[in-house]
Amino acid sequence: MKNVCTLLLLWAFSASSWAQSYFINEVDYLGGRQGLEIAGSDGTDLSNASLVFYKVDGTIYKIDYLNGTIPTLGGQNGTVWYDVAMTDPGEATDGGSVALVDQSGQVINFITYGLSVGVTAVEGAAVGQTAELIGPQLLPDATLQLIGRGLTYADFIWSLPGLGTPGLPNLDQTFSGLLAGLSGISPERTSASVQIWPNPTQGQVRVELGQHQSAGRLEVQLTDLSGRVLQRAVTHPASVIEWSLAQLPKGMYIVRIQQDEKLVEQHKLVKS
């Protein structure tokens, strides 16, 4: 009986974790690509969800409506980036405030970024709520981002600004639940269908594609964190690719596996 109760509690925890299906995951208000990232469960429909931007006095200055779905990133959680102007040209403050509002009009996140003070909304979906302060960006290439391990917004914390990864899980972030390891991108392991080794590597690396990959031709890419393609191979499942990273600087790279120009999965690769 005790074991049954424990399983029920674990199931309830898992179900509640998935109930909050998406949230703001990364913010860039200083860089050349202003915008924010939404993280959540694969396939989540973001159509008619909205970003409500507030002035310092708590009034709304614009509303941007979202569209599309959260894509698959090799697990059961993914991320999607939206290019959005994040500052009000009419405000003298470095930063701003935004509420992520779902299709039913409920506020999911309400955050203040930059040097703005905590804003209390006086109208709109967030009326009466005070925004959470997440800090200043400091440098154009260092975005504000959540780090940690989990599935819901409450599982993560806003970190000191780090290197931006628009459209990818953040560098110190793993999507993982209590009942299963559902990593977005992980340097420690790959999926059952892909093996990348050695990882970290000092030079040579092998990418082994298993039989569980989708049938048909695959494109495997090695990119840097800006998305620039450094190596590319067109192949099939159950094949092996070997690359030399000897000429690349130390750091983190991404192995992307695509089919018909659609992302199948991706993983971190560290050059040490």
Strand and helix layout:
Layout: H1 2-19, E1 22-28, E2 35-41, E3 50-54, E4 60-65, E5 77-83, E6 95-101, E7 107-114, E8 132-135, E9 142-150, E10 156-158, E11 162-163, E12 173-175, E13 194-197, E14 204-209, E15 218-223, E16 229-235, E17 240-244, E18 251-259, E19 262-271
Parallel strand pairs: 7-8, 9-12
Antiparallel strand pairs: 1-2, 1-9, 2-5, 3-4, 3-6, 6-7, 9-10, 9-11, 13-14, 14-17, 15-16, 15-18, 18-19
In angstroms, what separates the terminal alpha carbons? Answer: 50 Å
Beta-strand level of the residues, as a percent range? 35-45%
Tell me the Rg in angstroms. 20 Å
Mean pLDDT: 81
Question: Percent of residues in helical segments?
Answer: under 10%
The helix-strand sequence is: HEEEEEEEEEEEEEEEEEEE
What is the count of DSSP helices, taking H or I runs of 4+ residues? Answer: 1
Dominant shape = elongated
Q: How many strand segments?
A: 19
Biggest sheet architecture: 7 strands, mixed
- Spans of at least 5 consecutive residues with low confidence: 4-19, 178-191
Question: What structural class do you assign from the helix and strand content?
Answer: mainly beta
How many domain units?
2
Structure description:
The chain has one helix spanning 2-19; strands at 22-28, 35-41, 50-54, 60-65, 77-83, 95-101, 107-114, 132-135, 142-150, 156-158, 162-163, 173-175, 194-197, 204-209, 218-223, 229-235, 240-244, 251-259, 262-271. It has 2 domains: 20-175; 194-271, Sandwich (Immunoglobulin-like). Strand 15 (218-223) and strand 16 form a beta hairpin. It is mainly β and 272 residues long. Mean pLDDT is 81; it is low at 4-19 and 178-191. The radius of gyration is 20 Å and the shape is elongated. Strands 1, 2, 5, 9, 10, 11 and 12 form a 7-stranded mixed beta sheet that branches. A 5-stranded mixed beta sheet has the order 4-3-6-7-8, with no helix packed on it. The chain has a 4-stranded antiparallel beta sheet with strand order 16-15-18-19, with no helix packed on it.
